[in-house]
């Protein structure tokens, strides 16, 4: 086959705790990542040239070498030079539906789709853990995006322990289209303000990461207890992003005050905010209420749900 179309889902963070600094300059994290039914489509076509070309008509997405899908394809070409010389380069088209710079890992999921797609296109037969290892060199969220579902992520987010998947948790998601939060800015600001509280020694960091595996949020997920999950939502980055972005803070407050909302939280480094609701119907009602309260066209709203999978071939 000369081309593949892949579904690349977004993720939300049900939990994000910053536990310390790492010698490589990244943060040591304890997170729970969850795929949602809001996806981009990535079409990959073997071009029989030496080029990697990226096509995307979304104004916020670069189509040059800075695009994560370009980086993913270039990595595959470097790692598998024989396949590259046999099959040639690729044309990659991104059909963007995931809000950009939103804390939803859109770029990471697109890169994960390219790794999976090129593995298929070049008949490499890589295992999921081999793909995850390649993904980790592109970005901390890329390994999770490959398999998706529900997982504990520690280290800088690349060390994954899959959990029993939470499918059909109903979600309302909101993002101001024109508002972008830089992930490096959020972590840097957090370090400046809260770095004194970090666990300093490597034993302490390892102990915290290991204790996290049996904490209440993990138990709530294992028990599929939606109310407990909603009550245990946590994101340390809210402490720096919400004060700097009052619009996001107001949005979160508005979600929290809606009947039928079980819990609400910013995802990743923001600025998207999501709410867990009881049913899809309730999700529609909450979405309409938020729309009435904030008629601003710049605010994008989605009713979605959690899913069990990461990258998959489009039907
Ligand atoms: P994360 O949650 O992993 O931090 P994010 O959802 O906050 O990611 P992205 O949507 O991945 O952020 O975009 C971050 C920046 O990366 C954007 O400003 C965009 O210019 C750039 N970018 C590079 N490649 C892509 C891509 N394939 N899709 C979206 N943005 C991309």
Automatic annotation (TrEMBL):
Active site: 11, 141
All copies of domain GHMP kinase N-terminal, residue ranges: 67-149
Keyword Protein biosynthesis: no
UniProt catalytic activity: 4-CDP-2-C-methyl-D-erythritol + ATP = 4-CDP-2-C-methyl-D-erythritol 2-phosphate + ADP + H(+)
Keyword Cytoplasm found: no
Domain annotation GHMP kinase C-terminal: ranges: 217-294
This protein's pathway: Isoprenoid biosynthesis; isopentenyl diphosphate biosynthesis via DXP pathway; isopentenyl diphosphate from 1-deoxy-D-xylulose 5-phosphate: step 3/6
GO molecular function: 4-(cytidine 5'-diphospho)-2-C-methyl-D-erythritol kinase activity; ATP binding
Enzyme class: transferase
Biological process, per Gene Ontology: isopentenyl diphosphate biosynthetic process, methylerythritol 4-phosphate pathway; terpenoid biosynthetic process
Matching Pfam families: GHMP_kinases_C (PF08544), GHMP_kinases_N (PF00288)
Superkingdom field: Bacteria
Enzyme Commission number(s) of this protein: 2.7.1.148
Keywords: ATP-binding, Isoprene biosynthesis, Kinase, Nucleotide-binding, Transferase
Residues noted as binding ATP in the record, renumbered to the chain: 99-109
Family that this chain belongs to: Belongs to the GHMP kinase family. IspE subfamily.
Task performed by this protein: Catalyzes the phosphorylation of the position 2 hydroxy group of 4-diphosphocytidyl-2C-methyl-D-erythritol.
Protein name per Swiss-Prot or TrEMBL: 4-diphosphocytidyl-2-C-methyl-D-erythritol kinase
Species the sequence originates in: Dolichospermum compactum NIES-806
């Amino acid at each position: 086959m000369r081309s593949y179309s892949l579904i690349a889902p977004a993720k939300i963070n049900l939990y994000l705790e910053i536990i310390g600094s790492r010698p490589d300059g990244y943060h040591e994290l304890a997170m729970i990542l969850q795929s949602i039914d809001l996806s981009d489509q990535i079409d990959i076509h073997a071009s029989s040239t030496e080029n990697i070309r990226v096509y995307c008509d979304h104004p916020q997405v670069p189509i040059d070498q800075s695009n994560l899908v370009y980086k993913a394809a270039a990595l595959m070409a470097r790692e598998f030079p024989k396949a590259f010389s046999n099959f040639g380069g690729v044309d990659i088209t991104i059909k963007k539906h995931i809000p950009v710079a939103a804390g939803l890992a859109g770029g990471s999921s697109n890169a994960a789709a390219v790794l999976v797609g090129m593995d298929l296109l070049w008949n490499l037969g890589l295992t999921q853990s081999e793909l995850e290892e390649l993904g980790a060199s592109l970005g901390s969220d890329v390994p999770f995006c490959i398999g998706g579902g529900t997982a504990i992520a520690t280290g800088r987010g690349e060390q994954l322990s899959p959990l029993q998947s939470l499918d059909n948790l109903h979600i309302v998601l909101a993002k101001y289209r024109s508002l972008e939060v830089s992930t490096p800015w959020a972590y840097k600001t957090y370090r400046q303000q809260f770095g004194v509280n970090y666990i300093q020694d490597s034993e302490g960091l390892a102990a915290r990461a290991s204790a996290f595996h049996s904490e209440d949020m993990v138990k709530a997920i294992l028990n599929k207890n939606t109310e407990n999950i909603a009550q245990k939502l946590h994101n340390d980055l809210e402490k720096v992003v919400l004060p700097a972005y009052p619009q996001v803070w107001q949005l979160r407050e508005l979600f929290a005050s809606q009947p039928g909302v079980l819990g609400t939280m910013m995802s990743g480094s923001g600025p998207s905010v999501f709410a867990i609701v009881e049913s899809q119907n309730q999700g529609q009602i909450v979405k309409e209420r938020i729309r009435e309260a904030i008629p601003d066209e710049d605010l994008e709203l989605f009713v979605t749900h959690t899913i069990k999978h990461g990258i998959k071939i489009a039907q």
